[in-house]
Design brief:
The chain is α+β, with helices and mostly antiparallel strands. It is built from 15 helices and 21 strands.
């Protein structure tokens, strides 16, 4: 292959100025809205504030554009930015974990794209080109890939067809070489995108919507009254006959809104989702309003995670996430490889990355974890109910939730387990949000055994195996093992890791 030429000093696309100006317009709306609602003399000071805001932001937008430049050489990516505080970032080519190309709605209409450069262990993109032309975005990615191929050894060629489920590769190089043009691994049809949203409830966006109504002085009660006087009038009459019926209708309406919101969020995020294997990288593409495209190097994948919830699991649906050496905060440290699929489909796709089979049985943790969880839940319930009940005695009825918390503690114990197989550690946790971590032994980094004050009193410990770039929101930690069991597991994990590394060095 012809070596790529270095990219000389470049500026962002000129239409970036239009994009940034349009993005700043909501700020003017927020500032001027009080004047629109109450056009009296006392509100005119907001006009002066808005003028000052424009006098500051518009020149700043232009100066930021002029100051931003970037270069790409065979050794590094160099980015100059900043107006008051000037920055120079040098990103070594070999440290680049991923280059994502995103197209929000307006930049897509203007023929532009955002390029995000993610490095191993970074908590955010180390470099962002916002915005360049679509052609330039893909050119940047291809140039960086070309330099990485020149500096990295060639990946070990494995069969194009995946190994059988349950079979593990013989070395720690998990790269797979497919056809030169890559191959399609997984696509999510529209019907599945919508179905996946059925299993997702989101109250956050509803809360944001009502907060916005409050800010713009729109009375939510007026909207409800208007609805109740219209097509919902019979339901309104029924609700007024019983407070319990009114409460039930309110909960059902909130659940319906959360359900619809979840469907729309999933549609925007995973519309036309596709996963391709291109030599030693996985390439993802998805999005409705914002089209996102990125790559996941196979050799930098640390952990595979199957995610589900009770309803999804009841119908056999799961999501496959990959923890990589680069941390994406928006994805909670994980990259979604398969957003929504049956268990057999998940295993089939995982076979291209790190083949595994679902364990039939798991080893349990100590039953004392039920007691510890119930104590925490009881304390949290008292803290939540007590202050409210001081002013509203009826809040003491909230203590009736305690049996449900006891049941949750039992389910938490039953759903928590682990299994150390020949080539990987499996950890299962979660009730409402269920995780199954598959941690390859050669990816182990640090071994932990911890015991809090309360655990020490009960003779318990927690065991955690850390990997490179582990996310900060969920860990494959085995909680509340008896002391002897925890120590034995830790010793076995370390011995298995040393044995594995010794075998890999001998193979080289």
């Amino acid at each position: 292959m012809e070596p790529a030429s270095p990219i000389e000093a470049q500026r962002l696309h000129p239409l970036t100025l239009v994009q940034r100006f349009v993005v700043s317009l909501p700020g003017y709306v927020v500032l001027l809205w009080p004047l629109v609602r109450n056009p009296d003399a006392s509100a005119w000071f907001t006009v002066l504030f808005a003028v000052g805001f424009g006098a500051l932001t518009l020149p700043l937008i232009f100066l930021q554009y002029l100051r931003f430049r970037y270069w790409i050489t065979p050794q590094e990516i160099i980015i100059h930015s900043g107006v008051l505080t000037r920055r120079r970032r040098n990103i070594p080519i070999e440290r680049v974990q991923n280059i994502e190309v995103e197209q929000p709605l307006l930049p897509r209409l203007l023929g532009m794209a955002k390029v995000k450069i993610v490095t191993a262990g970074s908590t955010a993109a180390e470099g962002v080109m916002e915005f360049v032309s679509v052609q330039e975005a893909h050119h940047i990615r291809e140039v960086v890939r070309s330099y990485q191929r020149q500096s990295d050894p060639a990946p070990v060629a494995l069969p194009v067809e995946p190994p059988a489920a349950g079979a593990f590769p013989a070395s720690d190089n998990l790269a797979i070489t497919g056809h030169a043009g890559g191959r399609a691994l997984f696509e999510l049809p529209l019907s599945r995108v919508l179905l996946s949203g059925v299993f997702r409830f989101s109250l956050l966006y509803i809360a944001l919507m009502f907060s916005g109504l409050q800010y713009f002085n729109v009375d939510a009660e007026e909207i409800v009254d208007w609805l109740m006087r219209g097509v919902l009038a019979p339901l309104s009459d029924m609700a007024q006959t019983s407070p319990w019926l009114l409460a039930s209708v309110s909960v059902a309406a909130a659940a319906l809104l959360a359900w619809i919101t979840g469907i729309l969020v999933n549609l925007n995020k995973f519309y036309r989702f596709s996963l391709r294997l291109e030599k030693d990288k996985l390439q993802r593409r998805s999005g409705l309003l914002t089209v996102s495209e990125g790559t996941i190097p196979l050799k930098r994948i640390q952990t595979l995670i199957m995610v589900s919830n009770p309803l999804m699991r009841r119908f056999g649906w799961y999501r496959l996430e990959l923890q990589t050496m680069g941390i994406d905060v928006q994805e909670r440290g994980h990259q979604v490889a398969v957003p929504f699929a049956q268990g057999a489909e998940i295993l089939r796709q995982a076979a291209y990355i790190y083949p595994f089979s679902l364990p039939e049985t798991f080893q349990s943790v100590s039953p004392l974890t039920i007691r510890r969880a119930l104590v925490r839940y009881t304390f949290a319930l008292l803290v939540a109910v007590g202050p409210v009940a001081y002013f509203l005695p009826m809040a003491w009825w909230g203590l009736l939730a305690w049996p449900g918390l006891a049941g949750l503690a039992v389910l938490q114990f039953r759903r928590h387990g682990y299994l150390l197989a020949e080539e990987a550690l499996y950890v299962r946790r979660g009730v409402l949000r269920q995780h199954l971590w598959v941690v390859p032994i050669e990816k182990f980094q640090v071994f932990y055994a911890t015991a809090s004050l309360f655990q020490r009193r009960l003779g318990l410990k927690s065991v955690l195996v850390d990997t490179a770039g582990a996310g900060g929101f969920a860990y494959p930690v085995v909680v509340d093992l008896p002391d002897e069991t925890a120590d034995a597991l830790l010793t076995t994990l370390y011995a298995r890791f040393q044995q594995r590394m010794g075998r890999s060095k001998a193979a080289r």
